[in-house]
Amino acid sequence: MQNSGYEPMVCGDLPILVVTPHTGTALPSELLRHPAWVPIEGRLADPAGTLLRSAARRAGASVFSAHYHPCVIDFNVAADNRSLTPSLNRLGLCRTHTSRGEALYEPGAELSADEVERRVEAYWRPFHRCVADELSRLRARHEHVLLLVSHASFWLSPYRLQPGGMDCNVGTYRGESCDRRLVSSLTEAVQAHGRSWVVNGRIADCFAAQHYGQPAAGVHAIELEVAGRWRTDCTACIDEAAAGSAGLEAVWLDVLRALELRLKQLSRAETL
Fold first, then answer.
1. Which one-letter DSSP state was computed for residue 97?
2. What pLDDT is attached to residue 145?
3. CA distance linking residue 70 with residue 75, whole number of Å
4. Domain boundaries in the chain?
5. Which CATH class is domain 16-267?
6. How far apart are CA 20 and CA 48, in angstroms?
7. What share of the chain is helix, strand, coil (3-state, %, to 5)?
8. What is the pTM (predicted TM-score) of this model?
9. How does DSSP assign 99-147, residue by residue?
């Protein structure tokens, strides 16, 4: 039975799994009883992830995406980051407030620890089992595989990246989660399209890179957050019903081709 928290896994042939934990826009029906949740439904947090997902499918990569909005359950936050304190929870696993500090639950109907645990068991753990299973499947077929995660963690936070920030923020757990040559391939492809980038800035320590990256075992993990002009362009493209999306998807197709080529080179180097 398909889990309502995420979309079905699309299994590809490339040694790349693209995961978009913040492209979900749906809400469980019970949350719509809270007035503050109503405007959240349908709101897209990661427009770049939507375009990357489309490009990855065209390229033949594996693709896995959230169905629920990240305010319901954030798949790129550790399961133990669930503190429910009197202070605003705008960063954790299940948010109680928006990034602007607006309460999502009315007094007397606050999110409980039991409900957080239920969401972890119902959505978070199955989601990450699917990720681990697909990485294992790909690793059985390829010497080196890559988990590429697009998210909007800082856009969702009260410390969101400003419009003038770098276009592409890359996180590799401070260099621990992947071979540095993969990062070079990614940033060169991005720069070739006139996009700026920074490595291990604000998203250096996000969850997926820490949890999944094992380059010595042939499993690499890179996280991305698109901001600045690139995010603005992606948002406009989606708002205009995909007008011009082919050009923006072309950037991601070039990124995926560059990463696939580098993964093959890493594999060949080990056989020499």
1. B
2. 98
3. 7
4. 16-267
5. alpha beta
6. 9
7. 45, 15, 45
8. 0.92
9. TT--BSS-TTSPPPHHHHHHHIIIIIHHHHHHHHHHHHHHHHH-SSEEE
CB-CB contact of 127 with 5 (8 Å)? yes
112 CB contacts (<8 Å, ≥6 apart)?
84
Identity of residue 260: E
Cα angle: 255, vertex 219, 71; to 5 degrees? 70
For residue 84, pLDDT over 50 is answered with no
Distance CA 171, CA 6 (A): 23
Tokens standing for 234?
A: 């992606």
Contacting residues for 21 by C-beta, under 8 A, at least 6 apart: 65, 66, 70, 74, 75, 76, 127, 149, 151, 208
For residue 206, name the pLDDT band (cuts at 50, 70, 90): confident
Sign of the C-alpha dihedral, residues 83, 89, 91, 93? positive
Structural tokens at position 16: 């790349």
